[in-house]
Design brief:
The complex is a heterodimer of chains A (293) and B (520).
Chain A: H1 3-23, H2 29-46, H3 48-51, H4 83-119, H5 121-136, H6 139-150, H7 154-180, H8 184-191, H9 196-232, H10 244-252, H11 260-287, H12 289-292
Helix pairs in contact in A: 1-8, 2-4, 2-11, 4-5, 4-7, 4-9, 5-7, 6-7, 7-9, 8-9, 9-10, 9-11, 10-11
Chain B: H1 13-22, E1 43-48, H2 63-69, E2 77-79, E3 86-88, E4 91-96, E5 102-107, H3 121-133, E6 146-153, E7 156-161, H4 168-172, H5 189-194, E8 202-208, E9 212-217, E10 230-235, H6 239-247, E11 253-255, H7 259-267, E12 271-286, H8 296-305, H9 308-314, E13 321-322, H10 345-353, E14 362-368, H11 372-386, E15 391-397, H12 399-407, E16 413-418, H13 426-433, H14 440-443, H15 449-460, H16 464-481, E17 484-497, E18 500-501, E19 517-518
Parallel strand pairs in B: 1-10, 1-11, 14-15, 14-16
Antiparallel strand pairs in B: 2-3, 4-5, 5-7, 6-7, 8-9, 9-10, 11-17, 12-16, 12-17, 13-17, 18-19
Helix pairs in contact in B: 8-10, 13-15, 15-16
The chains are: A mainly alpha (293), B alpha+beta (520).
């Protein structure tokens, strides 16, 4: 077989599977539901100033703690700020950080895991032992400790989450690679004389990325929960920025009197998590249907 | 936060003297329930936000600890229920020499420590000297005027002063001058304060750090009461939990419920919510060791930019009033000050324009994350200072970290509170404006020699009218210097089950649990 023939054969091997499922994406109810929910949230966050005309930060102490009305759909908080407005602007912060925070661990973890799995040997041992160390600590314990060390704020959250959650990607990708590197198309590519780099990037990566991608969806949920938790603990985004976690914290004082204050941002977290979970589930059906069976 | 309150009694110095004479002989506390005999027995549970820190009466500044130690160790004189005067307590009577430098105090002869030994003049000498020795590291500054304490005989103590000192009796009514056995009953100070012994209505029980502290009945108490078998203060940091526990009958008293829930508690059948008048002042302190707070114009600009009425409305839910003086209205010699900075944005802008930072600056405010009032006030301050171009970052730490940062003056601005412990303004004015007063001028490093001189003059002045005038000057000058921005005066919120009777809080914050009883 010539090199060209091997490459063609390889491509032929993976193409049919992908195009078959992609064609049917709109028939995947879970995926569509997830996309609608997440899509709406993202649109609301992006166009926040268009869907509400209040300032999320400006206080109006004369109009504090109003009940829901036509002017203030969800009432006002103790500083007289419109709760609905803060909810929408809070989506900006929480979604932005949630999405951005998965990027670094996704890339770093995937690359580290892929290299470890593909090459094996002492490199694999070292990476996996580091991964084990991180897994030994509960997620929140490490994140909170790191945020304490770095000081509260958005940058620290990115750093802390990156430092803690890359290990999951590493573990997933390593497992994928252990299987993939034994597959016929990889063996064929090796025999054809391709470099490791080319095989990894051009041939293996497209086939194994789906698992990391699906995990990333549920990881965003975890990250958003972490941001909200940090906000609730007073370690997250500093006031007065609207953020769901700190809204819950502020509203806690009124849980027995103005319960909407803490409940609404809590519900927002639930809906967002639900949307992202559906999206991840749907993607999983779409990208690797054989695993679902 | 901590409140330090000291009062020099007599705030009314002269007034107090009269009052004392008037009630001469063992003033007894009101006995328990209004009408009817108080129920004997029962265990009282008080839930509160913060745990005690220490029982060392000479170096402890936090109210959580103070309210507990006051049930165990008692002073010679006691602040009256209305908080304006002092009355003999472990003392029966006293005389003052004509030169006002020698106080001869007679002691009760029927008082025993809970270790069984009788209280004598030697114990009193030891207890007062112990406090004096702490100097600026504890409450010793309160006793600065005392030259010597001598046990003339078993039941007489003679106190000689270095200079005429109006607040002496009030100082002696402070818990830091509480009476304990001579030489700590043979223990070291550390050992003794792990399980303190006093003459009070309750005996030290046990302390599970972070959970609860418990005291039990002193059956041989010299005075009326106690009616309860024991009292437990449980640590329940979350105000909603305390509220639910009270409504569910798991606790009897909720110490300092949130103002946001105060109204609901008031409306709950079976629960009484009371706002007891207090001497509490909440203020924003500026660290003058840090730029730009050494600049009076910066401080004034901030003081003029704050909307205190709005804070009272949204933080205290109307249960308080805007502050206009270092002293609270319940403190002797409080002088209403219409010139004290109140919200006036134009003036604030003018002051800032004259300052070293005409275009504003960035700074931070340190708060206790566990105190919802501080969290709210900080956000309101942040928003209001923004109008001046001052960017405020809110640093919220837990109470212990805040205390450490405060003591080290490691902050730009900090929200603090003060309540008086004795009915005399000197306790607070010395703490707040005199760098030697134990706290580097309430942690600000404020140092105005003119003000310090007035404060010292007022300490020695025994003429009531002249003293009032000195304190008026002091309040005006300090307000003009804006050493701190006064925020508001607030009462003490307590909510309790209707089963509890006899629970009264003085404006100084203390309560007498020997008067309290609990029905079935």
């Amino acid at each position: 077989m010539t090199t060209a023939a091997v490459a063609t054969a390889t491509r032929a091997m993976r193409r049919p599977a992908r195009s078959r499922s992609l064609k049917a994406w709109y028939r995947n109810g879970t995926l569509v539901a997830g996309m609608v929910i997440v899509g709406l949230l993202v649109l609301a966050a992006v166009f926040a100033p268009l869907i509400t005309h209040y300032d999320p930060i400006k206080q109006d102490l004369q109009n504090a703690l109003l009940s829901p009305s036509a002017d203030h759909w969800l009432g006002t908080d103790k500083y007289g700020r419109d709760v609905y407005t803060r909810l929408v602007y809070g989506a900006r912060v929480d979604l932005r950080i949630g999405f951005l925070a998965v990027l670094i661990p996704f890339v770093v973890g995937s690359v580290a895991g892929a290299l470890a799995g593909y090459f094996g040997g002492w490199g694999d041992t070292i990476v996996m032992r580091i991964v084990d160390v991180f897994f030994a600590f509960p997620f929140y314990v490490l994140v909170i400790v790191l945020v304490f060390v770095f000081g509260s704020g958005e940058k620290s959250i990115y750093l802390a989450i990156a430092a803690v959650s890359w290990v999951a990607y590493a573990k997933i990708m390593r497992g994928e690679l252990l299987v993939a590197k034994k597959q016929d198309y990889v063996v064929a590519a090796r025999l054809g004389g391709m470099s490791h780099g080319r095989i990894l990037v051009r041939h293996i990566a497209p086939n194994v990325m789906s698992q990391a991608l699906i995990y990333a969806m549920s990881d965003i949920v975890l990250d958003i929960l972490a941001i909200v938790t940090l906000g609730y603990l007073g370690l997250g985004i500093a006031p007065p920025t609207a953020e769901w976690g700190s809204m819950i914290l502020d509203g806690q004082e009124f849980i027995t009197t103005f319960w909407l204050q803490a409940t609404i941002p809590g519900l927002a977290v639930v809906v967002t998590s639900l949307g992202l979970s559906l999206l991840g589930d749907g993607l999983s059906d779409l990208l690797s249907p054989e695993r679902r069976k | 936060m901590t409140r330090a309150t000291r009062i020099r009694s007599v705030g009314v110095a002269a007034v107090a003297a009269l009052a004392l004479t008037a009630c001469g002989g063992g003033s007894s506390s009101d006995s328990g329930a209004a009408g009817g005999t108080p129920t004997e027995g029962g265990d009282l549970t008080i839930a509160r936000q913060a745990d005690i820190l220490s029982m060392d009466k000479t170096t402890t500044f936090d109210n959580s600890s103070i309210y507990v130690m006051e049930q165990i160790m008692e002073p010679l004189f006691m602040v009256s229920q209305d908080g304006t005067k002092v009355e003999p307590w472990l003392a029966t009577d006293y005389t003052i020499s004509d030169d006002k430098l020698t106080y001869t105090i007679k002691l009760r002869d029927d008082v025993k420590f809970t270790n069984g030994n009788p209280m004598t003049a030697a114990d009193v000498k030891f207890s007062i000297d112990e406090d004096t020795k702490t100097g600026a590291d504890g409450w010793g500054f309160i006793n600065a005027a005392i030259d010597s304490v001598e046990a003339t005989d078993d039941s007489t103590v003679t106190i000689k002063l270095k200079y005429a000192w109006a607040p002496l009796l009030a100082d002696l009514s402070l818990f830091s001058n509480g009476i304990i056995p001579e030489n700590y009953g043979g223990l070291t100070s550390e050992q003794f304060y792990e399980a303190p012994v006093g003459t009070g209505p309750f005996v030290w029980g046990e302390w599970k750090q972070g959970q609860y502290v418990k005291v039990t009945k002193n059956p041989d108490y010299w005075g009326d009461g106690p009616h309860l078998d024991s009292v437990t203060w449980t640590v329940v940091p979350d105000a909603n939990t305390r509220k639910l526990q009270l409504q569910g009958g798991q606790i009897d008293i909720d110490e300092f419920p949130d103002w946001s829930g105060f109204g609901t508690l008031k409306d709950t059948p079976g629960i009484t919510a009371t706002a007891f008048p207090s001497t509490r002042l909440d203020y924003l302190a500026f660290n003058q060791l840090r730029t730009p707070f050494e600049d009076v114009h910066v401080r004034r600009a901030i003081a003029y930019a704050l909307d205190r009425e709005a804070m009272v409305k949204s933080v205290l839910f109307g249960n308080g009033q805007a502050a206009d003086s270092l002293l609270s209205p319940g403190t002797p010699y409080y002088a209403k000050n219409p010139d004290a900075p109140q919200l006036d944005l134009d003036k604030a802008k003018q002051e800032l324009a004259q300052s070293s930072q005409p275009n504003g600056f960035s700074t931070s405010i340190l708060i206790n994350a566990g105190d919802p009032n501080q969290v709210s006030v900080a956000q309101i301050i942040q928003s209001q200072l923004k109008e001046l171009g001052i960017d405020v970052k809110i640093n919220s730490l837990d109470a212990t970290a805040v205390r450490a940062a405060r003591n080290a003056q490691d902050f730009d601005m900090i929200i603090l509170g003060w309540t008086m412990d004795i009915p005399d303004p000197d306790e607070w004015t010395s703490f707040a404006v005199d760098p030697e007063g134990g706290s580097h001028s309430a942690y600000t490093s404020y140092n105005n020699p003119e003000v310090i001189a007035i404060n010292k003059q007022a300490q020695a002045e025994t003429d009531d009218a002249k003293r009032a005038d000195l304190y008026k000057q002091l309040q005006e000058k300090v307000a003009d210097d804006a050493f701190a921005a006064y925020l508001y005066y607030s009462p003490y919120a307590y909510a309790m089950s209707d089963k509890v009777s006899g629970f009264e809080v003085t404006p100084l914050g203390n309560y007498h649990l020997e008067d309290v009883s609990k029905s079935e």
